[in-house]
Automatic annotation (TrEMBL):
This is Winged helix DNA-binding protein. It comes from Kribbella karoonensis.
Length: 184
């Protein structure tokens, strides 16, 4: 094996180790491509996200260092991800990444509409907890101070079949209210 090939393998292995330990990583736009990692580019930056084999089972994911993340309250977390997709995927005929920015007010409105009842005091706790979990796993980029959310870099891994399912799901969720713009 040539020195160049060995260096390339070491380079790829180093990046895979970084992603396995930290999850998707925001990198300098000049960072060269890495085998097995997808570049998720937006106006804010570039992320490296693992590209996992289609249909990868638990053992394959474990071997790659990317086992499914155990999530507290998985149903609520999945609901919140769907709501955020509905609020942030502004052009459903295009890729969801990078999407638009949604607000906490929009999320709360869609959540209440989806549940078919007025907002309950406990809803906010569930919403914030789910947003934090989804942010920690890079499915969302949640700015808690500003009360804004964007889709995270992991959405670039969704397959065409996933996107079709998500488009259908978004059609069944209540539309988010228009984003309120603060006066300057």
């Amino acid at each position: 094996m040539s020195t160049e090939a060995v260096e390339r393998r070491l380079y790829n292995a180093l990046w895979w180790a970084k992603v396995q330990s930290a999850g998707p990583l925001e990198v300098d736009p000049e960072t060269p491509a890495v085998a097995g990692l997808t570049r998720a580019s937006s106006s804010d930056g570039v992320w490296l996200v693992p590209t996992l084999p289609t249909g990868a089972g638990h053992s394959v994911l474990e071997e790659l260092g990317a086992p499914p993340v155990p999530v507290e309250l998985p149903n609520e977390t999945a609901r919140l991800l769907a709501i955020c997709v509905a609020c942030c995927w502004t052009d459903r005929s295009a890729s969801p990444w990078p999407g638009g920015t949604g607000t906490l007010a929009q999320i709360r409105s869609v959540y209440a509409g989806m549940r078919g009842r007025a907002e309950q005091p406990s809803d906010m706790t569930l919403i914030i907890g789910s947003l934090r979990r989804l942010h920690a796993t890079h499915w969302l980029l949640w700015d808690e101070t500003a009360g804004e959310v964007r889709l995270g870099p992991r959405v670039v891994t969704w397959s065409p079949a996933d996107l079709s399912t998500l488009r259908d799901l978004c059609r069944h969720l209540p539309d988010p209210p228009a984003r309120e713009v603060a006066d300057d």
